[in-house]
Amino acid sequence: MICLEKVSKFYPTEAGNYAALKENDIHIRKGEFIAIMGPSGSGKSTLLQLIGGLDEPSFGSISVDGIQLNELNEKQRTLFRREKVGFVFQNYQLLPMMTVAENVGLSLAANKAPKSEIKAIVQRLLEDVNLEGKASQFPSQLSGGQQQRVAIARALAMKPSLILADEPTGNLDRKNGEDVLKLLSRLNKEEQITIVMVTHDPQAAKAADRIIRIEDGEVVGEETNGGNRQ
Ligand SMILES: Nc1ncnc2c1ncn2[C@@H]1O[C@H](COP(=O)(O)OP(=O)(O)OP(=O)(O)O)[C@@H](O)[C@H]1O
ABC transporter domain spans which residues (predicted)? Predict the structure, then answer.
């Protein structure tokens, strides 16, 4: 499903190129739930951005769902992100001037789906994340946990084969964090959506099948979560 071969990422800095990722080989199977863990600055978010086609590697190749990201032009990468990947961020990244329903339906509208279809899909998604009744509210009127569930509904709108979640529980209290993890686990199991989640929280990582550890831009180990899976 996801295949990284010798992937490096350099950022130019005043002191020269900084290697945020160094020659990483990573393979993730379809339907896996992966947690990426590692110290601050180890390259976790950079890795997620490369897999999601938000940025390009300096060296190496990445394929997702049989698509070689290196071979896509800018327009094709935008379509890849919109149609294949659902992004979930620590700070939700909802658009504050849009209602919950408009936020969830954003990609569908960008893909020019008919309004009636968007409405029906958005309603179903909001039911799915237990937020029916909040469709016409604005993000600022919702709790953090509710906003994150809106963000997950938005991520699901295009039926992605992959969800990339960067610290999805980082801003949430324990209960809301657990609810978000349960939701991700359910989507993983029931819809077979592959999930790659960056987290600092060992408790959150227990939701995953496998933990990949990164230090200083390199994969340094991994463990399978066998019996621990929630
Ligand atoms: N645009 C950039 N320009 C220069 N350096 C960058 C840029 N983005 C990230 N870096 C550097 O690359 C390294 C990896 O950053 P990254 O955000 O991937 O780490 P992380 O593991 O996600 O960290 P955290 O857990 O703190 O979010 C860091 O040292 C960071 O300072």
Answer: 2-230
